[in-house]
Amino acid sequence: MVNNRRYLTIVSILIFVLLVISIAVFRYNAYLMLSFLIISIIMLPFFIRFEMRKVAVREIVILAMLAAIAAVGRVPFAGLPSVQPTSFVIIMAGLAFGAESGFIVGAVAAIVSNIFLGQGPWTPWQMYAWGMMGMSAGLLRNTWWMSKLWGKAVFGFIWGYLFGWFMNLWIIVSNLENMTWEAFLGIYFASIYFDLAHGIGNVFFILVFGASWFKILQRFQRKYGLLEA
After folding, report:
1. pLDDT tens digits for the chain (229 residues)?
2. Is 141 exposed, middle or buried (0-12, 13-18, 19+ CB in 10 A)?
């Protein structure tokens, strides 16, 4: 478990550094390349661990299905700013299967959903933010309060804001030369409504579907012994 957490910490720091460097060096021209690089960084060690454990391919398929569900879940809710079941699915994946799996489901869901909703320089940042959401859910899943439905709901609400605050960073970092304190505060104040909608949406999906989804995913985890981190 300690080694898994160390690996996840190193990967998350490396990806964040790549995001900042990409803005400074490539501006908006290399976001697709960066997206696939992030996927490679996350997935390569993951598949190596699968190979070492000689785990059946069906375990990878389960994570791919969850990522697909999370991605497609964004499309029907595109007309409701920040309200979608994607974050809910990512949180449930992290809680059921662990931090490493939650990270992958979140990152893949972002780039796949943007195939329908539009790729852009925000894509790698979404991949990282949703990946960290799934990772943190996995890292905290054994805490006493995450075993409670209300604890999961509070976690989802907080991440509604954390996701939005992190996504604001790519706007700030990409406009550092013109950034002032007034502009900085204006960006964050302007996102309050959207972050609140995201948080409330997470709470709704967790309270209504959280218990049943978690039980179903736990059955898959026990049946296939899915990799935990």
Report:
1. 545 666 667 777 777 777 777 766 666 566 666 767 776 776 666 655 555 555 556 677 888 899 999 999 888 887 788 889 999 999 999 998 888 888 889 988 998 988 888 877 788 888 888 988 998 998 899 898 998 999 999 999 999 999 999 888 878 777 766 778 888 889 899 899 999 999 999 999 999 999 999 888 888 877 766 655 5
2. buried
Tokens standing for residue 60: 């990878």
- Structure pTM? 0.84
Q: What angle do the packed helices 86-97 and 123-139 form, to 10 degrees?
A: 40
Do the Cβ atoms of 121 and 170 come closer than 8 Å? yes
